[in-house]
Amino acid sequence: MNEISPAPAGRFVVTSVSSDAHMWNLVFLQLLLEERGGEVANLGACVPDEVILAECRRNRPDALVVSTVNGHGHLDGLRLIGKIRADPELSGLRVVIGGKLGIRGSENARFGTELVAAGFDAAFESEAGLAEFDSFLGSLGAGSVRELATAGERA
Known about the structure:
Blueprint: E1 11-15, H1 24-35, E2 39-42, H2 49-59, E3 63-68, H3 73-86, E4 95-99, H4 109-118, E5 122-125, H5 131-138, H6 151-154
Parallel strand pairs: 1-2, 1-3, 3-4, 4-5
């Protein structure tokens, strides 16, 4: 079993994409981040893009964590990150996406590259486990995490 190392506490907004009705993944992430000292605003499932943007403006998190398990994360994620990067108040926000990014099994890793190119700081395919996400969390005290590659690129 991989051990998750402690990371600096921070403020996080955790959400799904607008088409994803799954909640267990969000609860897991919330508990993981809180266990490590984080303050978490969990927006829940099926969250409209505009609500995510408004909550990020209101909460001013250290990172927005987008989790998806319905297989359409890459589609909704591309739309969402475009809105975030176009918003002057949120353009510099650290944003990551992870979970089941597509419906193509082992080919889903290719979506991570596209999501990072579109503006996500990192993309984590569910098959990679928590190690890459742990690396991201450990980098929060450092500068930009744009250098983080997707799990597919590191493999």
